[in-house]
Design brief:
With 239 residues, this protein is α/β, with parallel strands linked by helices. The protein has one domain: 3-Layer(aba) Sandwich (Rossmann fold). It contains 7 helices and 7 strands; from the N terminus they run E-H-E-H-E-H-E-H-E-H-E-H-H-E. Strand 2, helix 2 and strand 3 form a beta-alpha-beta unit. Helix 1 packs across helix 7 and helix 4 packs parallel to helix 5. The chain is globular.
Length: 239
């Protein structure tokens, strides 16, 4: 199997988070030119430190990609530099749980929609026309197992992730015959520093590593996966 991305232009939204950083580094290691969006500057600095050997192929811009105008401006910055985007990975997301629906504040509900749904919409809306024009491209959106496993106390999170799956599934139908592919991955709890801090008594060994999930994303974005379109791929292991 070949996942060589030499010379490819890859956009990783949320590329400084626990999963996003692993995805950005994996693409860099396979020769891609990677641009990430970031909100917290220290997280981007941490990524640049980890990617020191590939510094010439990594760029980042501060952008709130949940906002369609900022997402459009972010994409235009990449296109002005590279003239194309071959791969879009959306790793923007967030979690709010432990709250029964009747106690769920509207601002929390909206925040989940922003992170888990609206970012996917805004990014695809900005990127897809350029991919269609080139008759080539791959999109991988990060949703969650919660899209179909609807736990108590997680109504906003589950609803936003389920909607994200539907969004990309419908996008995939729109893209039939265009040369552009769109797929979703469905992680559960990922072994990140933030999740370890949030659940210190958990058995971390059962959680998939970000690097392992990144391998699946690279495969889905590669030519090796050219027959996979409109899929929702579980990546939560068997622990």
């Amino acid at each position: 199997m070949s996942t060589d991305f030499s010379g490819k232009v890859v956009l990783v939204a949320g590329g400084t988070g626990g999963l996003g950083q692993a995805v950005a580094l994996a693409f860099l290691k396979q020769g891609a030119n990677v641009t990430v969006s970031w909100i917290v500057e220290s997280e981007f600095q941490a990524l640049t430190k980890s990617a020191a050997n590939y510094a010439s192929r990594l760029t980042g811009f501060h952008a709130d990609v949940t906002d369609p105008q900022e997402a459009q401006a972010f994409v235009q910055q990449i296109l002005s530099r590279s003239s194309r985007i071959d791969v879009l990975v959306n790793a923007v997301g967030g979690y709010a749980g432990g709250i029964p629906l009747w106690d769920l504040q509207p601002e929390v509900f909206e925040h989940m929609l922003d992170l888990n749904l609206r970012a996917a919409y805004a990014l695809a809306r900005a990127v897809v026309p350029h991919m269609i024009a080139r008759k080539s491209g791959a999109i991988v959106n990060v949703a969650a197992k919660a899209a179909w496993d609807h736990a108590a106390g997680a109504s906003a999170y589950a609803a936003s992730k389920a909607a994200a799956v539907a969004l990309i599934d419908s996008l995939a139908a729109d893209l039939l015959g265009s040369g552009v592919r769109a797929n979703t991955i469905l992680p559960s709890i990922i072994d990140t520093e933030a999740n370890r801090k949030a659940m210190p008594k958990a058995d971390f060994a059962k959680w998939p590593k970000p690097e392992d999930i990144a391998k699946v994303i690279l495969f889905l974005a590669s030519d090796e996966a050219r027959v996979i379109h409109g899929a929702s791929v579980p990546v939560f292991g068997n622990g």
